[in-house]
Amino acid sequence: MICKRHTPALQSTAVLVLFFLLLSYISLENAASILSRKLQEQFAFSFWENERMKDEFARFFGLKRPETGKPLFMPPPILADYAEALVYKDIPYGKKKGQTLDILVPLSLRSDEKLPVFVFVHGGTWIGGSKDEVLYSHFAREVLKAGYLFVSLDYRVYPKVRFSGILGDIRQALLWLFAHIEEYGGRKRFVLCGHSAGAHLVALATVQHGVLPEDVLQSITQVFLLSGPYDLPAYDETLDIPFKNLIRQVFFDLFEGRNNLRELSPVFQVEHTHIVYVLVVGERDEITPREQSEKLVTKLLEKNNIAFLFVVPNAGHGGTLFVLNSDFDREGAFASIFRTLLERKPETSWYNRGEPWRGLTGTGTSYCHFLSSLPG
């Protein structure tokens, strides 16, 4: 007898097994090679951008460069020294494997001081990624300099859980932080940030009714969304790759049915909120095209929210993370904007003057700023 609670996991596994069985007609090795080659071709700019970033990270932090396509991880002692922080590593926010988070506390924190909290959610296409990758941890120093605690969290991914379980982990982590962050020198004022799939999760958690309790939602002042997919039905049509129909079945299973794509798309869930939204996307991002960010910021503004969109010139999918750190932002523009955004209080009229970035970018042309208000 199969208990009902086991059914989603079995369905996920069954879809993957079917997927690989069908691919076996041309051999798994050949299928994987064909798919990998096609993905590299379609996403060539972002793929090689990521490899170049790993080169720079490895040199800067004195780390061994992994082979092409493999992630580069940040050892905690190096992160602690670089960020000038005390690192609380792999704190469990739940009882399941993978439900852990890191908290970085600046060494300069006074015993009587409570700092606001910056929470980062990594990407990985809902099937991978890790808070320990250098790509996701290097800019912690910038956040701490702005007067925050830095929190980075891991969550369970598909096919161990489907999307409701993934979003449930984000909710559980935020509830844990709301209850316990004061023990680490934080206060209940949160800024959330996510990249790629993490941006989708953060966006949905803050716009979809009922994901977060009202007291937790009210404690969130700003949200940074980097290179995220926000319209899943449109995103479903983005890929032009071999075995697309089979891969779409896995995609639909991840989101627990094709009919759920609209409900799980932030662009269709937006209402008025007090939260300030800052969206950032690479000009050359082929993985989550800029139209996805433009759709969401337009919907936010239509509902009279405060929202801004930055397009980073000549950046791909991962480049929006690279420019958050002044040690790697070659133009020196967006890292400055990022720090200024964090240091300003979002409840002030500073956000409502229409041109908040004047004087912040140096030349004024390094970064494009779109849709701070609707036309007309």
UniProtKB/TrEMBL annotation:
UniProt cross-references to SUPFAM superfamilies, sorted A to Z: alpha/beta-Hydrolases (SSF53474)
Hydrolase listed as a keyword: yes
Record key words, sorted: Hydrolase
Pfam families: BD-FAE
UniProt keyword Glycosyltransferase, yes or no: no
Stretches assigned to the BD-FAE-like domain: 101-300
One GO MF term attached to the UniProt entry: hydrolase activity
Gene3D superfamilies reported in the protein's UniProt record: alpha/beta hydrolase
Protein name: Alpha/beta hydrolase
Provenance organism: Candidatus Caldatribacterium californiense
Source species taxonomy: Bacteria, Pseudomonadati, Atribacterota, Atribacteria, Atribacterales
